[in-house]
């Protein structure tokens, strides 16, 4: 094993300080992997000690993970330290001039391994949930055909973009009896070959009157070959169009998707 200190890429997040590390400047060749252990350090100037963050954001622990070209040699913590703790003067992390000191201990294995017909699954520590909302006006005019609604906030998605597939009159065996609703990758062709995304998601139709929403939750591996998952029998048409349901108000329907990406397969 060799030890080296590498520069840290940092930026200001809305609720926390995020830190990320590049695995060297030379890219890893496709089909190869390298193993590293690393720790991040945040200096408290007032106490002259370091806050050490490793695996699962627990203090004094190392983080072990695999890097390959598919993830760009980038790893770190979305929530390295909360903005409140980082900005608290008593903690001493942030100087009066707005500067701070961050470092890393990186242990890189000299041995690089050739991967042949092997699938690597990287589970995501402390996954974040993304909430997407689609407000569909003039719903009745759209009720006769299949519609795709693109990701309303593409900048919020870290791994991929999503879209909503809506069949207002149902599809397959549910045609004419149910509303069919699916979550799908917006650009599945952009995924690297054999890559898959493991996600838990909830599709929801909002009750705009009584807040008794109708939802469906499941987990699925999304890929270029299987880019869509959902429920063809999401809700009965008679229930959806019922005036008492609150799902369709003044011609407007609101649909939501809560998405948590749990893992990546390479």
Automatic annotation (TrEMBL):
It comes from the Eukaryota. Residues 129-259 form the MATH domain. SUPFAM superfamilies: TRAF domain-like. Pfam families: MATH_2. Transmembrane segments: none annotated. InterPro entries: MATH/TRAF_dom (IPR002083), TRAF-like (IPR008974). This is MATH domain-containing protein. The lineage of its organism: Eukaryota, Viridiplantae, Streptophyta, Embryophyta, Tracheophyta.
């Amino acid at each position: 094993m060799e030890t080296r200190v590498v520069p840290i890429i940092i930026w200001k997040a809305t609720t926390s300080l995020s830190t990320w590390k590049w695995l060297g400047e030379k890219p890893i060749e496709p089909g190869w992997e390298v193993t590293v252990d690393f720790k991040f350090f945040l200096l408290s100037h007032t106490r002259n000690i370091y806050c050490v963050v490793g695996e699962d954001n627990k203090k004094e622990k190392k983080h072990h993970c695999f890097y390959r070209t598919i993830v760009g040699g980038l790893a770190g913590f979305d929530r390295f330290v909360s903005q409140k703790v980082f900005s608290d003067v008593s903690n001493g992390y942030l100087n009066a001039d707005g500067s701070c000191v961050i470092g890393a201990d990186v242990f890189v294995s000299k041995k690089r391994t050739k991967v042949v017909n092997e699938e690597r699954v990287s589970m995501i520590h402390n996954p974040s949930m993304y909430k997407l909302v689609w407000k569909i006006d003039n719903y009745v005019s759209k009720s006769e055909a299949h519609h795709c609604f693109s990701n309303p906030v593409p900048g919020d998605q870290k791994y991929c973009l999503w879209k909503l597939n809506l069949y207002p009159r149902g599809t397959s065996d549910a045609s004419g009896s149910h509303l069919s609703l699916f979550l799908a990758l917006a650009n599945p062709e952009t995924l690297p070959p054999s890559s898959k995304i493991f996600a838990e998601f909830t599709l929801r139709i909002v009750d705009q009157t009584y807040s008794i929403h109708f939802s469906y939750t499941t987990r699925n591996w999304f890929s270029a070959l299987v880019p869509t998952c959902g429920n063809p029998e999401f809700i009965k048409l008679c229930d959806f169009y019922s005036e008492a349901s609150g799902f369709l108000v003044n011609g407007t329907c609101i649909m939501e998707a809560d998405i948590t990406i749990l893992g990546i397969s390479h």
